[in-house]
Amino acid sequence: MKTNHFISPKYYIIDNMKALITGISGQDGYFLSRLLFKKGYEIHGVIRRNSSMSNGTLALLPEEIRKNIIIHYGDLTDAGFFAKLLGQEKPEELYHLAAQSFVGYSFQNPASTYDVNISGTLNIVNAVKDYSPSTKMYFAATSEMFGQPENTPQNEETPLKPRSPYAVSKLAGYWTTKTYREAYDLFISNGILFNHESEVRGPEFVTRKISLNVAKIVHGSKEPLELGNLNARKDWGYAKDYVYGMWQMLQQARSDDFILGTGELHTVREFVGEAFKVAGINITWEGRDINEIGKSDDGKIFVRVNKKFFRPLESDNYLADYNKAKRDLKWEPTTKFHDLVRIMVKSDVENSVL
Ligand code: NAP
Ligand code: GDD
Questions:
Q1: Which band of pLDDT confidence, cut at 50, 70 and 90, is reported for residue 10?
Q2: pTM of model > 0.85
C-alpha cells in the first residue's frame, strides 16, 4: 500500500489507497467516488474535454468530495495518454467504467462504439500490463452480453450471445480482460452488472426518462411521455448498491467474474405505473402495440408509444442469479424496485421545474 498523505478534508489525514476511475463523470462514477471518498482513498478521475466545460455528475458531488478528486483530462481512444497516466500514478485500484454506454446509440454509431469500448479497453489493459501490473482492475461488463437469453435466471455460466453493437463491444472488452488476466497474470475482475439506475442516471435511459417526465407532469406539463417497447423486461437495481459490489471485487485475494443484479423482473410498463403512483396518479392502459396509451383516472393521456424509440433488435428478459456474489463477496442488493422508483421520482419532482 502506498502512503500518500491526503491532507483534506480535515478528518481524513490518513495513509490511503489510490484509485483511478475512468468514467467518473457518469452515474457509477458518482456513487463510486462517494464510496471511495468515505473509505479515505485518494481518488483520480479521467474526464474528457467538452466545449461547454460541463463535468457531468462530478458537478453533483458534494464540494468536499469534488475538490479532493484529482482530474486527468483524456480520452479512452488515446493509448499514449493511458500509458503515461498508469506509469505516473500506478494506482492500487483502477475502475474502468468509461464507455459509450447507450444501447440505442450503438445501433446508429457502431464504429465509434467499437472504438471507445473495444480499443479504449485495450488501451487500458495494455497500459496496466506495461506500466502498472500490480494495479487491481475492475472492468464494467454487462448483462447485455447475454443477448436474448433462453435460460432464466442468468449466472456466470450462461452463454453470451450479444444482440447490439454495444453488447458486442462489451463482450470484446470482457474477453480482452479475461485473456490479459490469464496471459499476463494480472488482477482484473469483471462485473457482469444488470441494469442499475438512480437519481443521477443519464436522462436518455428509460428509467430516468420516465422519472423526469413524471416530474414535469407534476409541475404542470401537458406533454405525454413517449416511449418505445413497454413490454421490455429488465432486472433494475440501485446504482449505489452496485458500486459497493465493484469495490468488494477488488478486495478479494484473487480476481474473478461476478454477476450483480436483484433477481426481480419488471416491464417498462410496470416502471411507468409505479412512477406515476409515487406522484399520486393512477395509470390505466388502453389499446395495443403502437396504439397503447396510459391514462389517468380523469382521462388525461399521460403515456404514448412512439416507434422511434424501438430498437432494431430488443434484448431483454434479464434476471440475475447473483448467488456467486452473495457467496464469495457477501454482496446483496439492499434497494427494492419500489424504493428505487420512489427515490428517482421524488428526487426529480423536488429538483426539476417545468
Ligand atoms: P454512463 O453514465 O453513461 O457514464 C459513462 C462514462 O464514460 C461517462 O463519464 C462518459 O464521459 C465516459 N466516457 C464515454 N466515452 C468516453 C471516452 N471516449 N473517453 C473518456 N470517457 C468516456 O454509464 P454508467 O451507467 O455510469 O455505467 C458505467 C459503466 O458500466 C459503463 O461502462 C456501462 O457500459 C457499464 N454498465 C452499466 C450498467 C447500468 O445499468 N448502468 C449496467 C452494466 C454495465 P462523459 O460524461 O464525457 O460522457
Ligand atoms: N432508452 C429508452 N427509451 N429505452 C426504452 C424506451 C425509451 O423511450 N422505451 C422502451 N425502452 C426499453 C428499451 O428498449 C430497453 O429494453 C429498456 O427500455 C431499457 O433501456 P435503457 O434504459 O436504454 O437501458 P438498456 O437496458 O438498453 O441498457 C442499460 O443497461 C445495460 C445493462 O443491461 C445501459 O446502462 C447499458 O450500458 C447496460 O449495459
A1: very low
A2: yes
Ligand 1 proximal residues by C-beta, below 6 Å: 23, 25-29, 48, 56, 75-77, 97-101, 116, 140, 142, 193, 195-196, 202
pLDDT tens string 11-32:
343 457 999 999 999 999 999 9
Instruction: Determine contact, residues 17/92, Cβ cutoff 8 Å.
Output: yes
CATH of range 9-198+237-264+318-335; options 3.30.1160.10, 3.40.50.720, 2.30.38.10, 3.10.450.50: 3.40.50.720
Distance between the two ends of the chain, CA-based, in angstroms?
50
| Pairwise CA distance, residues 323 & 197, whole Å | 21
Catalytic residue, from 57, 113, 142, 176: name it.
Answer: 142
Residue of 42, 89, 93, 144 marked catalytic: 144
The residue assigned the cell 481512444 is 77
113-153 pLDDT per residue, tens: 999 999 999 999 999 999 999 999 999 999 999 999 988 99
Residue 201's pLDDT band (cuts 50, 70, 90): very high
- Ligand 1 centroid – CA 305 distance (Å): 27
Report the SS3 class of residue 75: coil
CATH code of the domain made up of 206-231+267-314+346-351 = 3.90.25.10
